[in-house]
Design brief:
Shape: globular
Oligomer: single chain
Strand content: 15-25%
Order of helices and strands: HHHHHHEHEHEEHEHHEHEHHEE
Helix content: 40-55%
Number of helices: 14
Radius of gyration: 21 Å
Number of strands: 9
Mean pLDDT: 83
Structural class: alpha/beta
Low-confidence stretches: 1-32, 50-62
């Protein structure tokens, strides 16, 4: 590759980039004729994305906590989405309807005007997991790609698509690829919508990832973060995050609503459309079954005991757990995850 590039007569015009950078530079200059068959166009685009992903994969550019996340979700992949009903009282379909409604409130789907959600929008779902958000975006976008660092989770996402194969009347995601959110394998400004769902609380340092999301978002496009949030009270937030980490060591920090707003602002080139006060009013209260929640990650008996003790202590009038616990009509221990959808426009 270096010989081929170096042997051109225009070598001096090639920027001083690393290998993935050279590939991005070369592929960005490839032009496919407008009369190319759509299937060929799609295959060419998939080849370009795959090549970028291979060169920018986690094996080439590692990120902190990535190995632990891959190991944990490799283990959980086969039941992660299938067992959702065992831990959450709210179906994924209802949560996604709430997310799309939140987006539609600030950027109406298929409407006219400067704030419209484009009919032919290209969307990217970052840290897509089994593709829940990816599939939800497909009916309202022209094309959707999901990217995740764990191949086993992508395998589950692709298995869903195989079951829908041939259903021409149902818009489906275009592609699922394995890659690192720290180095997204796409040109700057490729997508109209770049989102991530229930992933930020796994990132030790989410700012570089949100900056990458902003980079690949086109001017005027949307960056969307859907995540569970902690309490505004720092004591309650600290205890909440302590219990989350006991249950799943790949959890890092659930930010407050204000913290997510600050994250988007710090990423640069983003105009937050859902300020903290407005976003808080649109929180989704997702009731979780405590036992099912811990079973879904096969939490150790010792960690389970510590979590239950903290929950029961609050119910007995003790210190807050930050989890808003209660017992349901069957006297089962439950708590509430607070979900938020934060939306920013690329400027």
């Amino acid at each position: 590759f270096n010989v081929a590039v170096g042997s051109t007569n225009r070598a001096s015009t090639i920027p001083d980039l690393d290998l993935p950078g050279h590939v991005d530079w070369i592929l960005s200059r490839q032009r496919v004729p407008e009369d190319t068959h759509p299937h060929t166009m799609k295959a060419t685009r998939a080849l370009h994305v795959g090549l970028r992903a291979a060169l920018r994969s986690p094996t080439n550019q590692s990120s902190t906590n990535l190995a632990a996340i891959q190991a944990e979700f490799q283990r959980q992949a086969s039941w992660f989405e299938a067992d959702w009903g065992g831990r959450s009282k709210t179906p994924n379909e209802d949560i996604m309807s709430w997310v799309l409604g939140s987006i539609n409130a600030v950027a109406p789907f298929n409407a006219d005007g400067p704030s419209a959600f484009p009919k032919n929008a290209r969307a990217l779902d970052v840290a897509c997991g089994t593709g829940v958000f990816t599939r939800a975006l497909a009916p309202v976008c022209g094309s959707v790609i999901g990217i995740d660092a764990t191949e086993a989770m992508l395998g589950q996402a692709r298995a869903v698509e195989e079951r829908f194969d041939g259903a021409e009347d149902t818009p489906r995601p275009e592609q699922y690829i394995c890659g690192d959110a720290m180095a997204l394998p796409f040109d700057s400004g490729t997508f109209d919508v770049v989102g991530t769902r229930l992933a930020v609380h796994h990132f030790p340092d989410p700012l570089p990832i949100v900056r990458e999301m902003s980079r690949v978002c086109a001017p005027g496009g949307l960056v969307v973060i859907v995540d569970l949030v902690s309490d505004d009270d720092p004591v309650a937030a600290a205890e909440h995050n302590r219990l989350e980490i006991l249950r799943d060591p790949t959890h890092t920090t659930s930010l407050s609503v204000a913290g997510l707003e600050e994250l988007l602002k710090d990423a640069g080139s983003l105009d937050v459309l859902t300020p903290a006060a407005d976003a808080s009013a649109r929180r989704l209260q997702n009731v979780m079954d405590l036992e099912g929640w811990m079973e879904s990650t096969q939490t150790s008996a010792d960690a389970q005991q510590k979590i239950i003790q903290a929950i029961e202590a609050e119910l007995s009038g003790g210190a807050t757990s930050g989890m808003h616990p209660f017992r349901d009509e069957d006297s089962r221990l439950c708590f509430t995850h607070q979900y938020i959808t934060m939306i920013a426009r690329k400027v």
